[in-house]
Amino acid sequence: NGQQDSAAPANGEKKVMKINAASMFDEVHPFTQTYYKFEELVNKYQDEVTIEVKYNLNKSLGIETDYFRFMSQGESVDLAILAPANIATRVPSIAIVDMPLLFKDYAHRNRVLASDLFKAIEEDVVKKANVRIIGYAGGASRSIISNYPITNMEDLQGFKLRVQGAPIWAKVFDAVGAVPSVIAYDEVYSAIQTGVIQGLENEKIGYAQMRFFEVAPHYTLNEHSITVRPLFMSEKAYNKFSPTVQAAIMKAGKEAGEFGAQVELELGQIELDKLVKSGLANVHPFSDADKAEFKARATPALLKYVEEAGFTELYNGIQAIK
Amino acid sequence: MGSNEVAMMLFGVFLILVFARVPVAFALGLACIPVIMLNDTVSLFALIDRVFISYNSFLLLSVPFFLLAASLMNSSGITKKLMNLSRTTVGHLPGGLGHVNVFVSMLFAGVSGSSTADAAGIGKILIPEMIDQGYDRKFSIAITACSSVMGVIIPPSILMLIWGGTMSISVGSLFLAGIIPGILLGLSMMTTVYIYAKRNHYPVYDKSGFTDFFKAFVIAIPGLMTPLIILGGITFGWFTPTEASAIAVLYTMALGFLNKTINPRKFVKILSETARLTGISLFCVGTASAFSWLLSYHEVPQALVALISSMHIGPRGITLMIALVFLLIGLFIDAIPAIIIMGGVLYPIALEAGIHPIHFSIIGIVSLAFGLVTPPYGLCLLISARIGEMSVHKVLKDVVIILLPMLFILILICLIPDIAMFLPRLITPQFL
Amino acid sequence: MIDTQIGKNTSLITKIANTLYRSLLIIQTSFLGFLLILVTLQIISRLIPALPYMLWTEEISRFLLVWVIFLGAAIGVKENSHFTVSLLPEPKSKLGATIWELSIAGLTIIFAAIFTYRGYKYAKVMFWDISDIAQISMIWVGSAIPVFGILSLIFLFETVIKLTKKAGE
Ligand code: NA
Ligand code: NA
């Protein structure tokens, strides 16, 4: 790369293209690190243009649902990692990518993502929402966060929690005896402190970065889901590039996503440990028996949803991957 | 375009439009247009989107009910009963009705979250009465307007709900933090009333006996119950703010129907007035959100943080600067849109300087509350002046005289964080 | 309040504007009343365990508030009650004042036109979005934007006609 920089004429003609990336979190969050990695790799994998990424962090442009609308419109935001639930209002099928209790473990999740199973959904997203999945970050487990201790299924009964927008989340938590409601992510903090809800379910890193521990100091390791956080690029931005650059974008996106997943696994635990150490959060175990009961009570609702939404084949395909 | 150009353009166009008497809500939206046109990565979609999304929020839901409850308190006689209680408590001091005016605003502030309802409800009764008894008309209007600012400083407060919600700061702690500053402001106004009374020889009454006080207190109890419902409900999480405000509506409605001060016809009229007031007061929240989004899109907050930290003025200097900025923006804009525009811009500066979020919030809320009585755009002053049938600039001198000691209190709040932090530290240390 | 008495010499646009205005007052007030009933229901359903906890009330209340605000903003255009700052002295001549007011109306028309046209486009996209809880099409909420725009344009059109008439007199 340094060699090209010194080759003045070639470099002088190399066009600089700007891309706007948005995140609700700070510069150390795995999503942001994924963007950094993407910028590094996409310029490594092609020589045609220099892609410069502008980072809009800390909710400066809004929250994930906002990024989705802007990307879909083809303006203001070009690149963002989003929870699939955020775009399920427009593309309901994407909810299955991130369904609770879908993956057996982290390795299973990675094998599914390495397969071709989500291809149809990826195409659907481009068609209906005008955004393109270029990689998959995420990979952390989601657990329950509450303003009172929850250590078993009994404590979960009547627990009022915020869930993501895609209907499957409300159905699953309803089935296990909790009372789910859908609230915008940036209103969750005040919803807990004003008693609208008693908690939510989230990754360790989100728990720390959104300061949810201030209003809900209990983190219960029930691990009901392993996340898939697609890295999206707006179709309008993507189409500005030549096929060569597009290929580099896809390659860089895929690898940046994998990198981000690794970062999130490590960082999430570090952040949670810090909170526990300073006495700001209490971590509660959730026994295997309780996890099994959670799953047993949720499964009928899951299967019913999968069948109604016409995902049976896909769901079985995912479960079939060893 | 760089951050500085964008900031200058947004605020410049806004100020020009506002001075030309374009309604504030539209001026905020129109100011966005040139910036949007000059940038090819943003379109008018952003304007529409930010406006729409800002309304679709559960935080704003409590606003119409707070306004409705306050309006019902005025119609159902609760305000009158609080006033009688105030008379028997402070009516015997020199400048009795002036003290009653301030004291009842403190009580009213404790039962309602809105300052405008305070100015309207108390002003309607006390301004004519004060004039009758020989008080100066200008003074009567000015003290009514100025004392109403306590409405949003002493909890409950619509401003604190919105503030805590938009910036993820504990609302319960904000409520507690507002109590001492609110009482200090009340005392400063009562001192001013005392001096006025001595200089102008305002009438003095006999001290009411304890039985009168006790009677007035008992009669006011149903009204004084409302803060228990709202404050208790929100602080302890029994109800959401929206539910608490709705319960306050139902409660005052019930009181009004029971003592026959309210009938269905009157209720519908109040409901309709509240609906219209809600529309025009919240509409500017939407355009303010678009305005503030453009500021962040062009990284104005970051530029400002860099600028301020290069000035090395220290945390105390920064608290004063924050107060000044909120006072200035409060000259032109209502408090809620001002929070939306400037809160997010100044918060990073406060954090950078090590100012506690609650201290920062109280400085902002008190400064913005002053904006309710400062021209050219001060809603409480407008309302009081309208009731007193006098044009706003004639009462300005008295407003300034009453505001000066209040500004002194604001400076104290800036320099001595404990004034705000004492109660939250004592009662809700887990949020600090 | 606005004098909505219809006399003999009232122009068609004024008649239309006044009829719209009076219906708007009723609709907007009912929306707020309905909002109050919904939140009351929500509280009752929570306090009485026998009743199912209603999730949709929260969402529908928000949607109603969106309508209350947009309709209220349109009513404010008709009543000319949106808050303004009065700092500069009013123009001395009557004609000057009318021209001044016409310019303000013109700027407000630009604003309302954007909300009509872009709001319509925005709402059209929302047709495909389904709300999270009640699972209704978001067009029911989004259409408040162009409705506000059109109503404001009608009211502003009436204002402009009145102002030009006044200038002509
Ligand atoms: Na208050
Ligand atoms: Na002001």
UniProtKB/TrEMBL annotation, chain B:
Transmembrane segments: 51-73, 139-163, 175-197, 217-238, 244-262, 317-350, 362-387, 399-423
Keyword list, A-Z: Cell inner membrane, Cell membrane, Membrane, Transmembrane, Transmembrane helix
Any one of the GO CC terms: plasma membrane
Compartments it resides in: Cell inner membrane
Major location (coarse): membrane
Cited InterPro entries: DctM, TRAP_DctM
Protein topology in the membrane: Multi-pass membrane protein
Record GO terms (molecular function): transmembrane transporter activity
TRAP C4-dicarboxylate transport system permease DctM subunit domain ranges (all copies): 11-418
Any matching Pfam family: DctM
NCBIfam families: dctM
Name of this chain's protein: TRAP transporter large permease
Automatic annotation (TrEMBL), chain C:
Key words, A-Z: Cell inner membrane, Cell membrane, Membrane, Transmembrane, Transmembrane helix, Transport
Keyword set includes Heme: no
InterPro entries the UniProt entry points to: DctQ (IPR055348), TRAP_DctQ (IPR007387)
Organism: Oceanispirochaeta crateris
Stored Pfam families: DctQ
Membrane topology term: Multi-pass membrane protein
Family named by the database record: Belongs to the TRAP transporter small permease family.
One GO process term, biological-process aspect: C4-dicarboxylate transport
One Gene Ontology CC term in the entry: plasma membrane
Name under which the protein is recorded: TRAP transporter small permease
Cell compartments where the protein resides: Cell inner membrane
Keyword Cell inner membrane attributed: yes
Lineage of the species this protein comes from: Bacteria, Pseudomonadati, Spirochaetota, Spirochaetia, Spirochaetales
GO molecular function, one term: transmembrane transporter activity
Limits of the Tripartite ATP-independent periplasmic transporters DctQ component domain: 36-164
Ranges that cross the membrane: 24-48, 60-77, 98-117, 137-157
